[in-house]
Structure formats: C-alpha cells, structure tokens
C-alpha cells in the first residue's frame, strides 16, 4: 500500500518554465489537496478537489492549475515558474464521513527551486 | 476567520522528560477537528493525533496526548518520556466542517530533545 506518491522529489526550474508535479493515491480517498510550505510558515493550501471532476481554489492559488480526471491522480501545474514559487510542495488525501474529513495522508513532498 | 496559533518557535526538553507544545485556535464553527503532525528533518508529514470538537475525552496515542480545552480554544500536545527521535517540527492544524476539507496550519514548533 503506497499511500500518497509524489514525483519528482526535487526539481530546479528556470523562471518562465512550466512543469507538472504529480500526485497519486491508492487509498480511494475522495479528497485531495496541494499545499506549499515556506520557511517559518506552516503549510498553506493551494488547490483542492472533493472528487473527480471537481476542483477549487485554496488560500494561495495564483500561478497554479489543477485537474482531477480520476480519483487516484491530482497533478499540480506551474504555468510559468517564478522565484516566488520556490517552496516545498505537499500533496495530501483524505476521506470523509458525513461531511467531515479524516485520515489526512501526506506525500513525501517535492522540493522546487526556481532560479 | 479561522486561525491556528503556535507561540513557541523553538523548545528544548531533556530526554525522558515530558513536554507540552502549545496550540490555540480560532473559529466560530461548532464542528471542527484538530490535528497534530510531526515533521522530522527528512521532511515528511507524520500524523500524530486527532481531536474532534465533540469528543468529550482527550485523545491519546501512545506517548502523545492532546490536552483539549474547548472553552479556552486550546489543543496542546503533550509528549511523555521524550526520546531523541522526537526532535522535529510539530504542526497543529484545524479542519472546519463544510470548508472543503481544508486544513489550516500553525507556524510550527521546533522541538529539540537533549540527551
């Protein structure tokens, strides 16, 4: 049981390049989300999805796109990388019971540097 | 607005002693959940303990317990018998009902266990 798998683990981009951070989960969780973690700060929500075909913005969505075509996958796209997007990115999934979410499982993170 | 506050940027504890990490939260909702995560230097987010707002008893998981004081809006993590492997960042997070599964994180507390 792999849980939440994120790839790549490390990435260096040049300003203006685009890339996709991959996230896959094998727990059949309906809820998936992307967070970024910057030094001295807790994790901040970028985008989330409550099921296939449904996505919504979080706290810091600018510069990022997401889609959810399957329950398992939730890729995060950086359209035109900027140095301000240098961060550690975490994907998380969870399940819900009567509208409340539990069992948040995080991937191992992607450390992204934009130069 | 919902908010998590962790006022201790860094803490030291002697091995085998107990330590309390503070967490206060702010929400006007009656239904919410509180989580603690551990982030070692390797970077992954490890779930420690969960407390629901309607749970009457404090949550416990092995050496971890959550001191939940609803009236004071505090959810402090208590680690008993500290071990060297407990040295890490600790994050308190809150999930609010009907917020799309969003987790709101505090800024974290860095715990160092001294031998």
List the helices and strands and how they pair.
The complex is a heterodimer of chains A (115) and B (115).
Chain A: E1 4-7, E2 10-13, E3 19-25, E4 31-37, E5 43-51, E6 54-57, E7 64-66, E8 76-78, E9 87-97, E10 100-106, E11 110-114
Parallel strand pairs in A: 2-11
Antiparallel strand pairs in A: 1-3, 3-8, 4-5, 4-9, 5-6, 7-8, 9-10, 9-11
Chain B: E1 3-5, E2 10-14, E3 19-21, E4 24-26, E5 32-39, E6 46-52, E7 60-61, E8 64-69, E9 74-79, E10 88-96, E11 103-105, E12 109-114
Description:
- The complex is a heterodimer of chains A (115) and B (115).
- Chain A has strands at residues 4-7, 10-13, 19-25, 31-37, 43-51, 54-57, 64-66, 76-78, 87-97, 100-106, 110-114.
- With 115 residues, chain A is mainly β.
- In chain A, the strands form two sheets. In chain A, strands 2, 4, 5, 6, 9, 10 and 11 form a seven-stranded mixed beta sheet that branches. Chain A has a four-stranded antiparallel beta sheet with strand order 1-3-8-7, with no helix packed on it.
- Chain A starts with a strand and ends with a strand.
- In chain B, 0% of the residues lie in helices and 53% in strands.
- Chain B has no helices and twelve strands.
- Chain B has strands spanning 3-5, 10-14, 19-21, 24-26, 32-39, 46-52, 60-61, 64-69, 74-79, 88-96, 103-105, 109-114.
- In chain B, the strands form three sheets. In chain B, strands 2, 5, 6, 10, 11 and 12 form a six-stranded mixed beta sheet that branches. A four-stranded antiparallel beta sheet of chain B has the order 3-9-8-7, with no helix packed on it.
- The relative contact order of chain B is 0.34.
- Classes of the chains: A mainly beta (115), B mainly beta (115).
- The interface between A and B is medium-sized, with 28 and 24 residues.
């Amino acid at each position: 049981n792999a849980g939440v798998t994120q790839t790549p683990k490390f990435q260096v981009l040049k300003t203006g390049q685009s890339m996709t951070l991959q996230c896959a989960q094998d727990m059949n969780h309906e809820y998936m989300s992307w967070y970024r973690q910057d030094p001295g700060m807790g994790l901040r929500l970028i985008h989330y999805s409550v099921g296939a075909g449904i996505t919504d913005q979080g706290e810091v969505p600018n510069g990022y796109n997401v889609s959810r075509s399957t329950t398992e996958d939730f890729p995060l796209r950086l359209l035109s990388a900027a140095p301000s997007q240098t961060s550690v990115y975490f994907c998380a999934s969870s399940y819900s019971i009567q509208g409340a979410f539990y069992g948040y499982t995080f991937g191992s993170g992607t450390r992204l540097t934009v130069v | 607005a919902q908010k998590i506050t962790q006022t201790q940027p860094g803490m030291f504890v002697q091995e085998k002693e107990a330590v309390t990490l503070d967490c206060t939260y702010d929400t006007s909702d009656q239904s919410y959940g509180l989580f603690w995560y551990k982030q070692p230097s390797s970077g992954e987010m490890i779930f420690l303990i969960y407390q629901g707002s309607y749970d009457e008893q404090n949550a416990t998981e092995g050496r971890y317990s959550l001191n939940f004081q609803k009236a004071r809006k505090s959810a402090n993590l208590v680690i008993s018998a500290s071990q060297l492997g407990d040295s890490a960042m600790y994050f308190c997070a809150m999930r609010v009902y009907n917020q799309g599964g969003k987790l709101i994180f505090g800024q974290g507390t860095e715990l160092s266990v001294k031998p």
